[in-house]
Amino acid sequence: MASFDPLGLVPARFRKIVTELVQFGMVGGVGFVVQVSVFNVLRASVFSPTVIHAGPILAMLVSTLLAIVVNWLGNRYWTFRAKRQTKIVRESIEFFAVSVVGMTIGLGCLWFSHYVLGFRSVFADNLSGNVIGLVLGAAFRFVLYRFWVFNSSRSLDSVSVTAPAATAADTAPTS
């Protein structure tokens, strides 16, 4: 009897990447809620453009850094758990480096919209930074997380979450 496969419509050769993409999207969704919530609270209060000229940029910077932490935990321990490395410091540095470049994509979109095009409303800041910038940054991050940061074939120090194979000593009868 065949087991239930929620991705039954996806050809077998694409199931792994589709599963990772769905999980990445779910983790990113949680990070998105963190980012948008913190951004809007900060933009409406301590980083209001009426208080600080660079307020929207600073609000985006702080909110994105918090979302990066949330995303690192979710991607390390769920999305790419089978590929994570034992060298957590190296992996986290790589993750944060990719995330910071992805963050600059969103910041660049916000900066261009707010300061070059002159679209300064809360809606325009959210659209440019939290929609357009997020989509472009997410595509960049997924590719680099999957093929560089959490690529188990890069080194021999990846952590296996599957049970190790039984050895002859494990299966030998005891007297």
Helix content: 55-70%
State the domain count.
1
Spell out the helices and strands N to C. Answer: HHHHH
Categorize the overall geometry: elongated
Percentage of residues in DSSP E strands: under 5%
Which stretches are low in confidence, meaning pLDDT under 50 for 5 or more residues running?
156-168
Q: Helix count, per DSSP?
A: 5
**What's the average pLDDT?**
83
Structural class: mainly alpha
Annotation, overall tally of beta strands: 0
Radius of gyration: 21 Å
Describe this structure in words.
The chain has one domain. The chain is elongated, with a radius of gyration of 21 Å. Mean pLDDT is 83; it is low at 156-168. The chain has helices at residues 12-44, 55-79, 88-116, 122-149, 168-171. Helix 1 (12-44) runs antiparallel to helix 2 (55-79) and helix 1 runs antiparallel to helix 4 (122-149). The protein is mainly alpha-helical.
Summarize the structure.
The chain has 175 residues and is mostly helical.
Secondary structure layout:
Layout: H1 12-44, H2 55-79, H3 88-116, H4 122-149, H5 168-171
Helix pairs in contact: 1-2, 1-4, 2-3, 3-4
Throw out a few tags for this protein.
68% helix; 175 residues; mainly alpha
